[in-house]
Structures are given as C-alpha cells and as structure tokens.
C-alpha cells in the first residue's frame, strides 16, 4: 500500500515553550497547541475526528486529551515508542486514507521543566542493566564515535543562533546560548563519557500539535499543504544492551522504507529534521538514512557543511540540543518541517525547500521512524 | 559515568563467547581506562544479599 500524497499536514503549532511556570499542566499546553494548530489550518475543533497522542505524563493519553478538549473522537491511536511516536502517528494517519477518520490531531505536551527540571519518563529500568547504574538515557547514547570524541562540535552548525525566540513572550528556550561558542566542549561537565552536558538536549516545557487531513480536503484550505510522501518504521531492540550493533541504528531500515514509498532518496531531500537528543544522534542519522557513508558523519558535521548556507540543511529550528526538548520532541520536528516547506521561516528559511525528511528517534536509539514530506510540486 | 558525587565509574556491554550480550562493569580498571575490545571474564560479586555479575580483565584473572 502506498500512502504517497494521500494525506497532508495542514496545520502546525507549538505551545508555549521553555519554562511556562507553575499552574500549567501538560494538558494545558496540549490545549494551547491544538487551538493554535487549528487556527493555522483554518479548521474548527468540530472538524477533528481522529486523535493521536503519546505521553510520559498520562497513562492513557488519548483519553485524557479527548476529555480535556471535549472532543468525541471516532479514531484514537496512542502508539508509544518514545520521542519518535509522533512521526509514527503521522505514518498511522494513513487511517484517513482508510476512511477511519477525516481530520486527525497529533498532539503532545509536557511541563517537565517547571515541574522539577528533570526528564519525566515512564521508562522502567531493565533489571539486567540497573545494577550497573547507567545514567538513563544519556549513558545509552554515550558510545565512542569519531565525531563525539573530538573537540569539533557536531552540533547543527549555527542554526540555533538564527532561531527567533518562540512568540510567546513568556520565556526563552535559549538558556544555553552563552556556552555555544567554541571551545565550549573543553569546559563543559562530563556526564557520560564521551558526552558532556553540552552534548545533551535541553530539558524544557513544551508541546505541539499537527493537523492532518486528506489531500483532497487539504487543497481547499488556505495554507499550502505539506503532503506525506512516504514513511517507514523500524525497531530492533528496547534496551541498549540488546542493540545488535552499537554503531548502526534501525534508521537504515526506516529511511529506506520511507524513501521507497516517497520515490525520493537523500539526494532529493532539501531539509532534514533529525531527532537530536544527543550530539551523536545527528551523526548517526546522517549516516544511517544515507546522507553519507558509515563513519563519515563526523566529517559531515564539520567545517560548516550543515550550517546555514552549507551543503545540507539540518535541524533548522536549532533542534533538541538548542531550541526545545520537552521530554519527547518528535512532534516539533514536524512543526519546523512544515513551516520550512511553506516558506514561513524568515531568516532561517531554506531556499527552495520542497522535500523534507523528518526523522524521529525513540527509547535508547531503539525506535526509528522516518517520514518524507513534500510540497505540491513534488506530487 | 560521572555523577556529581563520587568517582566516575564504567558501564560496559560485553559480548560473551556463549553467544549473548549483556551489560556489566569491569572491576579493577579506572573508568576511562576500559578499552573497547578488551577481553574480560565474568565473576559474580555480592552486593548485600544480591549476586551481581561483573567482569575482570582476562589478564588479571590469570
């Protein structure tokens, strides 16, 4: 079954980001983002009949979201694979093509920063790993890789500096901006070698929403649709000690599946949004979905090649490392990709952005989900 | 792994000749001196009443 061009993202929004302060629950951020995304799409709450959500805060997230929004959804999907879940939801919105729903809401929210400043996770400890006290989840990403063992920063170039603060006026997500100049790595605290604190994503509040509908209906809306051209999922392990090869992620498979459906490969991709929980993620996701050969990711992120004006646009929002990481970040990848494809990104806009690869990572490099989005030109 | 308190410690993943992979730690080697590919052998230590499998260098074992 090919889903190419059958559905499109027609509305996206962030909730307030950064540190929203006391008095907000994750559902409040979900509510904010949903209303903003509906407004962006030019649709009404009463149009929405499908719901996709995952959460570390709510045990039955679609039930909680449905109750909070006061919507009686006829289709509900709470697929939970960590931060990649929301890219997976985009894939599963194939339910629209099957006629199971017509307008789908994908949403997420977390107040983990205001609530304690630590990652909120429902992840259970593996009894075979717990006695050795790895630091979850960073130790599971702390594998020596040429790119993370040198003093060159494998960050998303200078994109974070171009990032405008989110328009909420409440807070800034740029709390680490002072440390981003080189040689930041030399002076930052080691967490789990070779990853220092500067190799780790932010811990922020935040949320988002995306509205997906059939391509037919999408064309009647005001803003240009971002069509789902292809998607693919893969997972090979849950716990890091069972990862078959620590240097190769299942993004090899998810990427190929997405490309095959989309009829496009890395050569055609104008923009990549990689789930960068840690610096090593960006390197792996350049290698595994085929932007460079295995082992060459370190060189790929060096010398400004992924900076603005470089060879490949990577994580133009600033990513989980510099822009926002509310525990699960996958939905915000979609938000930025859609804005880029629409040409709404101002001074960080990628020229002629027609095809975007959105790549979600979940668990401990466990779940890999790729989706290819494209403009009307690509159909 | 570097915690705010205490000395850094190592966490490893070892491939066993018996055909499976497991997490563990290498005893008797400073955290940053554990080398990828080093040959180790399993030993069972006790932490309180609980048995905990750890690894020691194969050279040291001899």
Can you describe what's shown?
The complex is a heterodimer of chains A (379) and B (62). Helices cover 23% and strands 18% of the residues of chain A. Chain A is an alpha/beta fold. Chain A has a ten-stranded mixed sheet, with helices on both faces. Helix content of chain B is 6%, strand content 42%. Chain B is mainly beta and 62 residues long. The model of chain B has no long low-confidence stretch (mean pLDDT 91). Chain B has one helix at 58-61, and strands at residues 12-15, 21-24, 26-27, 40-47, 50-57. Classes of the chains: A alpha/beta (379), B mainly beta (62). Chain A binds chain B through residues 126, 128-129, 131-135, 139, 144, 189-193, 240-242, 246, and chain B through 1-3, 8-9, 11, 13, 21-25, 31-32, 36, 47, 50, 52.
Supply database-style keywords.
heterodimer; A: 379 residues; alpha/beta; 10-stranded mixed sheet; 11 helices; B: 62 residues; mainly beta; 3-stranded mixed sheet; two-stranded antiparallel sheet; 1 helix; 6% helix
What's the arrangement of secondary structure elements?
The complex is a heterodimer of chains A (379) and B (62).
Chain A: E1 7-14, H1 26-41, E2 50-53, H2 61-69, E3 75-77, H3 85-92, E4 103-110, H4 159-162, H5 184-187, E5 190-192, E6 195-196, E7 206-214, H6 215-218, E8 226-235, H7 251-262, E9 271-274, H8 279-287, H9 297-300, E10 313-314, H10 319-322, H11 330-342, E11 355-362, E12 367-374
Parallel strand pairs in A: 2-3, 2-4, 9-10, 9-11
Antiparallel strand pairs in A: 1-7, 1-8, 4-7, 5-6, 8-12, 11-12
Chain B: E1 12-15, E2 21-24, E3 26-27, E4 40-47, E5 50-57, H1 58-61
Parallel strand pairs in B: 3-5
Antiparallel strand pairs in B: 1-2, 4-5
């Amino acid at each position: 079954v090919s889903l190419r061009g059958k559905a499109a993202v027609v509305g996206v929004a962030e909730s307030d980001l950064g540190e929203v302060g006391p008095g907000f629950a994750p559902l409040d951020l979900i509510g904010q983002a949903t209303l903003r995304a509906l407004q962006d799409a030019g649709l009404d709450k009463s149009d929405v009949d499908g719901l996709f959500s995952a959460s570390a805060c709510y045990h039955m997230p679609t039930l909680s979201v449905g109750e909070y929004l006061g919507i009686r959804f006829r289709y509900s999907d709470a697929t939970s694979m960590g931060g990649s879940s929301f890219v997976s939801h985009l894939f599963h919105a194939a339910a629209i093509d099957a006629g199971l729903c017509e307008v789908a809401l994908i949403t997420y929210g977390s107040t983990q920063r205001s609530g304690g400043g630590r990652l909120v996770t429902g992840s259970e400890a593996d009894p075979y790993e717990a006695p050795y006290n790895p630091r979850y989840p960073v130790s599971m990403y702390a594998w020596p890789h040429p790119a993370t063992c040198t003093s060159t920063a494998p960050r998303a170039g200078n994109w974070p500096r171009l990032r405008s603060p989110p328009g909420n006026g409440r807070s800034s997500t740029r709390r680490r901006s002072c440390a981003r100049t080189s040689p930041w790595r030399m002076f930052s605290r080691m967490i789990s070698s070779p990853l220092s604190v500067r190799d780790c994503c932010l811990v922020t509040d935040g949320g988002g929403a995306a509205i997906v509908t059939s391509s037919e209906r999408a064309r009647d809306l005001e803003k240009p649709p971002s069509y789902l051209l292809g998607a693919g999922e893969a997972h090979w392990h849950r716990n890091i000690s069972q990862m078959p090869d620590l240097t190769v992620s299942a993004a090899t498979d998810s990427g190929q599946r997405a490309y095959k459906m989309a009829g496009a490969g890395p050569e055609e991709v104008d923009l990549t949004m990689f789930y960068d929980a840690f610096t090593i993620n960006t390197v792996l996701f350049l290698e595994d979905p085929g932007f460079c050969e295995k082992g060459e990711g370190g060189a790929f992120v060096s010398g400004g090649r992924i900076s603005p004006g470089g060879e490949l646009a990577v994580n133009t929002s600033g990513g989980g490392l510099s822009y926002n990481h509310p525990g699960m970040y996958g939905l915000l990848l979609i938000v930025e990709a859609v804005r880029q494809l629409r040409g709404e990104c101002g001074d960080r806009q990628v020229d002629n952005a027609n095809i975007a690869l959105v790549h979600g990572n979940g668990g401990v490099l466990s779940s890999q989900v790729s989706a290819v989005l494209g403009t009307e030109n690509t159909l | 792994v570097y915690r705010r308190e205490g000395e850094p410690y190592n966490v490893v993943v070892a491939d066993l000749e018996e055909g499976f992979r497991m997490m563990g730690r290498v005893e008797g080697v400073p955290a940053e001196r554990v080398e990828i590919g080093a040959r180790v052998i399993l030993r069972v230590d006790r932490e309180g009443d609980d048995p905990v499998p750890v690894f020691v260098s194969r050279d040291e074992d001899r």
